[in-house]
Automatic annotation (TrEMBL):
Residues 4-236 form the ABC transporter domain. The keyword Ribosomal protein does not apply. It comes from Nocardioides mesophilus. This is sn-glycerol-3-phosphate ABC transporter ATP-binding protein UgpC. CDD domains: ABC_MalK_N. NCBIfam families: PRK11650.1. One of its GO terms (molecular function) is ABC-type transporter activity. The keyword ATP-binding applies. GO terms for cellular component: ATP-binding cassette (ABC) transporter complex, substrate-binding subunit-containing. One of its GO terms (biological process) is carbohydrate transport. InterPro entries: AAA+_ATPase (IPR003593), ABC_transporter-like_ATP-bd (IPR003439), ABC_transporter-like_CS (IPR017871), ABC_transpr_MalK-like (IPR015855), ABC_transpr_MalK/UgpC-like (IPR047641), Mo/tungstate-bd_C_term_dom (IPR008995), NA-bd_OB-fold (IPR012340), OB_MalK-like (IPR040582). Pfam families: ABC_tran, OB_MalK. PROSITE patterns: ABC_TRANSPORTER_1 (PS00211), ABC_TRANSPORTER_2 (PS50893).
Length: 388
């Protein structure tokens, strides 16, 4: 096991395009690090530079204290689990797991047997050892691929979207399984995904990338509660954070649905700004009818017509359309494009308490908690109220 330090890593492909642009990430020994971001942001490129499958244009890649920029993949002793697990169809599960050990020719048959059985026990593959990969489920195949990585005593595990071709249910199961296994083995892991749920549930820390540039490196909770900028705010969370145009007057914010008084610390950060973008997660809203009076006093209540409601059993969402000026609309739709979200007409997504009785097409009183709102600079896209 080893720590992985990436220092000012740059990757320019032949055409000069900077796929990874001055990225520094330190992965602690035993840590589970996630690289997440939309398609083309440079996740796979970065991972391939760690393993040695891609040259590094500039910067230092340090694994276990050694600079490995010039080292061949086989000398880095890392185990990569690809999206397609590349198992050998004609070999049994046992032989698939044993494969890297046989290839290295450094182990006796007894040693190989011990290691394969140890990995198989850990991965609960004992009853499948004599089967062929073609007869296994996607999740079982995934475990065989991991077994092959485990027997090598690699310094770190690297995963590139290992769950993307599984169905939703199996993906959920495998997510838990990978998480459990990583904790048990305590092995340094770098895991690439474009799925923010995977990022949030698996990672000790998450590195959010956009167009080759590191946007924020933080724990899942910190990313969710204190996003650095509009991109991270919109990328993390599902349904995503609502973004609303807001004009500032002292400690008052004028939002499309009315005026809200914001806490003094937040107000002081946006003084002198005309227009800001207010970021409000769906759960900062609620049906005012089910909010207690102490909480009502912490925010504002407005009246709105609910367009659509969605009831999911344990929770419910209400959709409320709103008007936005043309320039703000343009900016929001550009952001949606970056986030690969469906282009949508401006609407609020409100997470309703299960006790709410709001119905579609009806007017209702909606509460918004002003303390939790983030305020973003529309031109720099920075979060002006980070940490507040
Ligand atoms: N061999 C290559 N030659 C030139 N450009 C490349 C090459 N491989 C990748 N790129 C470019 O580098 C950028 C990053 O690609 P990369 O594969 O790292 O993205 P990614 O974040 O893994 O995306 P995805 O989620 O789609 O897998 C992209 O813009 C891509 O077009
Ligand atoms: Mg990729």
């Amino acid at each position: 096991m080893a720590a992985i330090e990436m220092k000012n890593i740059v990757k320019q492909y032949g055409d000069g395009f900077p796929a990874v642009n001055d990225v520094s990430i330190d992965v602690a020994d035993g840590e589970f690090m996630i690289l997440v971001g939309p398609s083309g942001c440079g996740k796979s490129t970065l991972l391939r530079m760690i393993v040695g499958l891609e040259d590094i244009t500039s910067g230092d890649m340090i694994i276990g204290g050694d600079r490995v920029n010039e080292k061949a993949p086989r000398d880095r002793n890392l185990a990569m689990v690809f999206q397609n697990y590349a198992l050998y169809p004609h070999l049994t599960v046992y032989e698939n797991i044993a494969f890297p050990l046989r290839l290295s020719k450094q182990h006796s048959d007894e040693e190989i047997d011990t290691k394969v059985r140890e990995a198989s026990r850990l991965l609960e593959l004992d009853e499948h050892l004599d089967r062929k990969p073609g007869n296994l489920s996607g999740g079982q195949r995934q475990r065989v691929a991991m077994g092959r990585a485990i027997v090598r005593d690699a310094q770190a595990f690297l995963f590139d979207e290992p769950l993307s071709n599984l169905d939703a249910k199996l993906r959920g199961q495998m997510r838990t399984e990978i998480s459990r296994l990583q904790r048990r083995l305590g092995i340094t892991t770098v895991y690439v995904t474009h799925d923010q749920t995977e990022a949030m549930t698996l990672g000790d820390r998450v590195a959010v990338l956009k167009r080759g540039i590191l946007q924020q490196l933080a724990t899942p909770r910190e990313l969710y509660d204190q996003p650095n900028n509009l991109f991270v705010a919109g990328f993390i969370g599902s349904p995503p954070m609502n973004f609303l145009p807001a004009t500032v007057q002292g400690d008052q914010l004028e939002l499309p649905f009315g005026k809200v008084t914001i806490p003094a610390e937040k107000a002081s950060k946006v003084q002198g700004k005309d227009l800001v973008i207010a970021g409000i997660r769906p759960e900062y809203f609620d049906d005012a009818a089910v909010v207690d009076s102490a909480r009502l006093a912490q925010g504002a209540t407005f009246r709105a017509t609910v367009d659509v409601t969605e009831w999911l059993g344990n929770e419910a969402y209400a959709y409320i359309p709103f008007e936005a000026p043309a320039d703000v609309r343009e900016q929001l739709s550009a952001l949606e494009k970056e986030l690969e979200m469906e282009a949508m007409h401006p609407q609020l997504v409100v997470n309703l308490d299960a006790a709410s009785r709001i119905r579609e097409g009806e007017e209702a009183d909606i509460f918004v908690d002003a303390r939790k709102m983030h305020l973003f600079d529309p031109s720099s896209q920075e979060n002006l109220t980070v940490g507040l």
